[in-house]
Amino acid sequence: MNHTRPWITAGVALVGAGLMAAPVAPAAGQLAAVTMPGIQLTAADMVLDLVRHAESVDNVTHVMGTVPPGADITDLGKTQAAFLADPTNPQHLAAPSFYDGIFASELIRTQHTAEGWLTAAGAPDTPVTVLSGLNELNAGSLEGTIPTSQAEALQYLLAPLAWMFGQYWVPQLGSTIDPNGMAFNDRFTDAIDTIYNSSTPGADGQLNDVAFSHGAAISMWVMMNVKNPDFGMFFESLQQGMLPNTGQVVIEGNPTDGWTLVSWDGQDVAENPGLLTGLFVDFRDLMVAPQMAGWHISQAFEGGDPTEIMAALQTGFNGVFGAIMAFPQAVIETLTSAAGDAASSAEASGDVFGDLFASLSA
């Protein structure tokens, strides 16, 4: 395999994006003009409850097991799964009939967690749809090992932490499943899109689904994609081992308009992320677009299908162009939102600096 090809094709996407800034007269025989797809906003929202599996044998033995079928849940795990149906549980799930769909990864620990909940809820025959995109973040060279120190265990998350800050190109060493943030984001996003597209809005126009997945996969995808990532809450949970067994992360939104983090392991998350986090998200979205475009183009070239190559070039061009065009407005909206919050705070507390910020934004 030519290892320089991904970088070459990524460069093609970036150069193409840069050339858009300069108007060029059409030449004879030039390809048809790139068309920008219409953007349909305000699609129906989905509330998706992402649930980590119950305690597994790997959890007890500290084995890094991320490949299907994986280890089963323990006896304690079976109790935890059943407790999801108990109304006295602060994070109990709704009745199975409430959800438009119930999903799980290919690993048996998620499927058996879902089945334990359904049985306890009196609906053991309710179907569970298995999606490979919900599988755990691949451990790469650490797969099957037992880390002997906290530092060694943290190696598993070094690349994903970089992805969380927009550096999708950082490799997950030894992984052919999630070799980088682009590949991981693609496959988990595909699963979320499948869940969304298979659901039907209720009378309130909203979708409700539940998906059983894994601690690292849930945590990283959410922090990589939501509009209001709460980094303080994330790193606090990381010190405690990520999400606890049967811990939940709730998001709301849709693939068109994006996703908002509603709650993390039972703690509500503010919809407005604040000025610094808001600006970070704006820059993150701008950084990610060319990385995703380069990855998709490189994959298309690897496949060798001219139709797929042209489609990847078109999609990559649109994605980068859209990110560049959306960036200034996103920053303005972030600053305006922060100014509005400061004005409200100043009005409520009489804060001098808040009054100044409000007057400057008027």
Automatic annotation (TrEMBL):
Organism: [Mycobacterium] vasticus
Residues spanning the signal sequence: 1-27
GO molecular function, one term: hydrolase activity
Keyword Hydrolase: yes
The protein's name in its UniProt record: Histidine phosphatase family protein
Known EC number: 3.1.3.-
Statement: the UniProt record of this protein carries the keyword Signal: yes
Keywords tagged on the record: Hydrolase, Signal
Pfam families given in the database record: His_Phos_1
